[in-house]
Amino acid sequence: MLTGVILAGGQNSRMHGLNKALLTYEGEHFIERQIHEMSSICGEMVVVTNDASVYTSWAKPDMIYTPDIFQGSGPLGGFHAAFSTLTNDYAWVVGCDIPKLSAKAATKMLTILTNSDYDAVLPVVGGKHQMLHGIYRPKRLLPLITERLEAKRYRLSGLLDSIHWLGIKELDWMEAGISVDFTEDVDTPLQYLGLLQEERRTDGDVTRPV
């Protein structure tokens, strides 16, 4: 079974402290959109956050919330907190600042992972690996992540140096009919403004009945 993991414990410093999970797009909070999309293929959902009260008033009642164990260790600490709670063999891990998640893309990566010996399958877009929309084997990776955190080696991408992973490139996504915009994140107010402008343009392109 696949577990969906949303990392929502960041400091949001580039957004001047504004909680990116609660930004809105197409009438929903980012995290609401993510929960809906991920729940279509995930048997359970985990949100890594140090303040679950922000989300419990409207999120699904069976959501699992867990705080960071290694405080202040960034996304790698979020992986550790989530993977420490899981019993499932596979996890779809995303950042809370990605509004266009794709269950279709996740299913493609999960299929590859379950039929291989990789530790993780990730999108590679623009020549960059996108670890916060990847599929992982949590039981296999947790000891490695714990070791890195205990050594204060917090860089998330450094984990890739010690695991067996596969990157799925843009051409493969195109051939599968999947737009790579599912990896786009919103880190700054300027990027969020661009997303809202895109939303308005899309709305304007819709033909409305007279």
UniProtKB/TrEMBL annotation:
CDD domains: MobA. Gene3D superfamilies: Spore Coat Polysaccharide Biosynthesis Protein SpsA, Chain A. Residues 4-153 form the MobA-like NTP transferase domain. InterPro entries: MobA-like_NTP_Trfase (IPR025877), Molybde_CF_guanTrfase (IPR013482), Nucleotide-diphossugar_trans (IPR029044). Keywords: Cytoplasm, GTP-binding, Magnesium, Metal-binding, Molybdenum cofactor biosynthesis, Nucleotide-binding, Nucleotidyltransferase, Transferase. The keyword Cytoplasm applies. The keyword Endoplasmic reticulum does not apply. Pfam families: NTP_transf_3 (PF12804). One of its GO terms (biological process) is Mo-molybdopterin cofactor biosynthetic process. GO terms for molecular function: GTP binding; metal ion binding; nucleotidyltransferase activity. This is Molybdenum cofactor guanylyltransferase.
